[in-house]
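WARN retry 2 of 3 for item q-0093 after timeout on previous attempt; input resubmitted unchanged.
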Amino acid sequence: MHASHAKNIYKADVLFIGNVSHFLPAMQGAFFIQSNGAVNHTPPFADAAGTEDAFNRALDCGKGLAAVALDIFGNTDYYYSLKESYMQNISDKAVTVARDYGKEVPTQNQIGDLLKLLPPPLARSFEGQDVKIEQVLGALMATDVFLR
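OK item q-0093 returned
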C-alpha cells in the first residue's frame, strides 16, 4: 500500500474505543510503526502508515486480535464468563460514576427518558433490540448524558 492510498482511505473522525467499551466489550490492539516522530492522524504519519513495514505490522496485530476472537467464540463457557464479567463490571462502573458525580443510578423509567436525549446515531442502535440495562448505562456514560 502506498502512502497516497493511506491518506485517502480514512478521513472520518477518530474512533474512541473507550466510548465503544461502555456499550460492549472491546479491545484495541496497538503496534509500533517507524514514523520518524510523526504524530497520529497527521499527513506525515499517514505516509509512515503507508509503508510495507507498517502494513505487515498491522497484519500481525490483526492476526493477534483474530486469535483472541477465536479463543473467545470457540469456547462457549469462556464467552459467557467474559460476558457476565463485563456486565458486572459496567454495572459496578455505573455505580462508581454515579457516586463520584453525586448522582443516582437511573431507574428503568429514567433510562427511557435519558435515551430520548441521545444523539440520533446512538439512539438508533437501541431501536428494536433487547438491550441490557448495563449496555444502556454504558452508552449513557460514554456520551456523558448520564452525568447531566
